[in-house]
Amino acid sequence: MKTRHVTLSPKASLSLRLLAELIEEGRLRKGWTRDELAERVGVGVVTIRQVAKGSPRVAIGTYLEAAALVGVSLFTDDLDTLKQEQATQRERLTLLPKRVRRQTQESLDDDF
């Protein structure tokens, strides 16, 4: 299988490494091995090793699940507040157009 290469901006790369380090710290504080975290997340230990390195090839859901399990607070720890924030965001999205179309530049004929 061909390995896909993912290029991130410096800011995204640094943020991903920070998240990876927070997950690794949480795992160590809980006293879990990488095998134990992998089992809880539902992935292989190789994937957890990639998470620990901050690999952009790992699915974002895997990072989020690992973070939640080890206690890394990404938004809020309160489930009701998280649901309310999601509902508010959903309402904001309904106010925006469903899709964006590329604007075409029409030349103005201002020669009277």
From TrEMBL:
All residue ranges annotated as the HTH cro/C1-type domain in the record: 23-50
Pfam families: HTH_3 (PF01381)
Alphabetical list of PROSITE patterns matching this protein: HTH_CROC1
Stored InterPro entries: Cro/C1-type_HTH (IPR001387), Lambda_DNA-bd_dom_sf (IPR010982)
Recorded superkingdom: Bacteria
Entry protein name: Multiprotein-bridging factor 1 family protein
Organism ancestry: Bacteria, Pseudomonadati, Pseudomonadota, Gammaproteobacteria, Oceanospirillales
